What we know:
It is built from six helices and three strands; from the N terminus they run E-E-H-E-H-H-H-H-H. With 163 residues, the chain is α+β, with helices and mostly antiparallel strands. The chain has two domains: 3-64, Rossmann fold (3-Layer(aba) Sandwich); 83-162, no CATH class. The radius of gyration is 19 Å and the shape is elongated.
Amino acid sequence: MAHIDVSNIDYFLSDGTQLLNGVTFKVPDGTKTALIGPNGTGKTTLFRIISGDLVADEGVIGRSGNMGIMRQFVGQVRDESTVRDLLVSAAPPALAAAARTVDEAELAMMEHDDEPTQMKYAQAIVDWGDAGGYDVETVWDEVCMAALGLPFDRAQHRPASSL
Length: 163
């Protein structure tokens, strides 16, 4: 069972303008829900609050189960991001942090192949596994096969802008 419960959310912009006022709704398990409104009315801000990227000035967000987030403008990547970078950006914060730590540790290993660097790399790999990284790589493999016809290990370094 999963649900999202948004209760009395208020949010003020940095200039003091109130963008969200008492927003309340519930999305029960198994439902498909749309949030529709004109540009600038706070839809993206509300989703950023629900996902935990922003903190509401007032109100409470209740969640249970797992929640997947697809960021706005996916597919319009105009930088050097890879397919792996795109997948990591959509991952839960703890998993994304573990992925960044593994990346940093791998780069450090290329520069300094000493014991302390190897130990930091080993710890990063353990933390990646503890965060569910190996489990999510199985899902990423399925996604890459469905979308690109390539397994994750072959698609991960492909530029996201080529999608």
